């Protein structure tokens, strides 16, 4: 058994099942996501399952964790080739290669392409930069790789890792405040420790996955853009609006630079960009988008204020991430002058979601339901809020948010 006690606290069965689905397929499997989201542990868990459940001989599996002390010397494709050659030549029969944080190896795609052509190596990679992986893999392995996005812990997974058996308001608030990075929930439960840990993760994302990779020179501006996007979670944002804000702070910057920096942050999974879908015109709009944080804990720690003051934005952010976990493609809906928080599509089916903190005000209740009632189709429509009473009416479901997060809705 390879796993340590800490690593088996939570087994993310959905991801392990997805990995198993592609086992042995003649394509490269790529697990991608934010730093510290649990990709490394998933690789180790899959390695152990191959040995314990699939009967794979341990010597035929090679796991290289590039950001660990043991493998820091693997900085180039030449070093990677030299490291793997004795193993490839010494093991007879099928082999399994796993490389964690592969983007830290310069020219790695050359070696992966050559190994894939052999046909006897089942390859699994992880990475923390979306564009690096997609661009380099698409160039050499067009149609011969599959991406498996890994997201922060869901609410049920967070309860599991914390040893809780059921929902409680305190646990739900804690999840909204501190996010879903697995290692965070094994630290002492005090604010200073958790904020320091999240700040360190944010610094790693910015410095290693953005500044170093893209040779960003104006780091203060990059951080200002990140803060703005985190602060505007759930609001429509444009590059011009950010540039205007910077100018109000006596910082002169062009729209193209803002677009570039936002794209870098998106590539590092620090933020997710969501386009607007015009329900009448049936097209994505090019003007103004929404951004959501890759992890709420990192966002809340960076902004340095009471997270629960933005509870409506936090709930909307987590609903977006949960829809991604459930396999949906998500857009923001536009219907005339009304907004639909999420238009979610999966397996050819569409659903609409409105997210609200509370519906106790009649005007708020009218606004949230009216936006869905005005949609002229029969796709499922749901309003999500913290109200415990069932307020469903006119064919529109209303669900208490913690209960919705606890639903099992695997695609």
Concise description?
The protein has 411 residues and is α/β, with parallel strands linked by helices. The protein is built from 15 helices and 13 strands.
Number of domains: 2
Beta strands, count: 13
User: What is the radius of gyration?
Assistant: 22 Å
- Tertiary shape: globular
The helicity comes to 40-55%
> How far is it from the N-terminal to the C-terminal residue, by CA?
31 Å
Provide an overview of this structure.
The chain is α/β, with parallel strands linked by helices. The chain folds into two domains: 6-149, Rossmann fold (3-Layer(aba) Sandwich), CATH 3.40.50; 155-406, no CATH class. The chain has 15 helices and 13 strands. It has helices spanning 13-21, 39-52, 77-90, 108-118, 130-140, 155-161, 169-178, 191-214, 219-231, 239-248, 255-267, 296-303, 311-325, 362-373, 401-406; strands spanning 28-32, 61-65, 95-100, 121-127, 145-149, 236-237, 271-278, 283-293, 329-335, 338-346, 349-355, 381-385, 397-400. Strands 6-8-7-9-10-11-12-13 form an eight-stranded mixed beta sheet, sandwiched between helices. The chain has a five-stranded parallel beta sheet with strand order 2-3-4-1-5, sandwiched between helices. A hairpin with a 2-residue loop joins strand 10 (338-346) and strand 11. Helix 7 (169-178) packs across helix 12 (296-303) and helix 10 crosses helix 11. It is globular. Mean pLDDT is 91; it is low at 1-8.
């Amino acid at each position: 058994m390879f796993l340590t006690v800490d690593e088996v606290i939570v087994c993310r069965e959905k991801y392990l099942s997805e990995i198993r689905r592609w086992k042995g397929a003649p394509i490269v499997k790529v697990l991608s996501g934010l730093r510290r989201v649990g990709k490394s542990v998933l690789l180790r868990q899959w390695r152990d399952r191959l040995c314990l459940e699939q009967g794979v001989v341990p010597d035929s599996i090679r796991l290289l964790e590039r950001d660990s002390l043991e493998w820091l010397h693997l900085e180039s494709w030449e070093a990677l080739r030299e490291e793997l050659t004795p193993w490839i030549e010494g093991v007879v029969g099928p082999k399994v290669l796993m490389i964690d944080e592969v983007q830290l190896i310069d020219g790695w795609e050359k070696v992966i392409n050559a190994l894939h052509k052999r046909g006897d190596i089942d390859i699994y990679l992880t990475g923390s930069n979306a564009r690096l992986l997609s661009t380099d893999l698409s160039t050499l392995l067009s149609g011969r790789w599959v991406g498996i996005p890994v997201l922060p812990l869901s609410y049920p997974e967070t309860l599991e890792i914390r040893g809780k058996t059921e929902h409680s308001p305190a646990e739900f608030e804690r999840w909204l405040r501190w996010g879903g990075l697995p290692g965070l929930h094994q630290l002492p439960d005090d604010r200073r420790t958790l904020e320091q840990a999240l700040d360190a993760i944010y610094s790693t994302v910015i410095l290693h996955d953005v500044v170093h990779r893209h040779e960003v020179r104006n780091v203060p501006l990059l951080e200002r853009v990140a803060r703005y996007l985190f602060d505007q979670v759930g609001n429509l944002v444009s590059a011009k609006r950010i540039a205007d804000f910077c100018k109000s702070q006596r910082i002169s910057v062009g729209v193209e630079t803002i677009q570039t920096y936002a794209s870098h942050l998106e590539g590092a999974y620090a933020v997710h960009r969501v386009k607007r879908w015009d329900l009448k015109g049936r097209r994505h709009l090019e003007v103004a988008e929404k951004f959501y944080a890759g992890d709420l804990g990192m966002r809340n720690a960076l902004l340095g204020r009471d997270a629960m003051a933005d509870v409506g934005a936090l709930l909307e952010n987590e609903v977006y991430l949960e829809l991604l976990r459930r396999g949906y493609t998500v857009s923001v809906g536009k219907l005339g002058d009304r907004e639909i928080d999420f238009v979610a599509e999966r397996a050819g089916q569409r659903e609409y979601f409105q997210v609200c903190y509370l519906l106790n005000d009649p005007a708020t209740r009218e606004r949230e339901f009216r936006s869905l009632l005005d949609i002229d189709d029969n796709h499922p429509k749901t309003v999500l809020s913290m109200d415990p009473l069932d307020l469903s009416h006119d064919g529109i479901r209303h669900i208490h948010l913690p209960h919705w997060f606890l639903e099992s809705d695997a695609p």
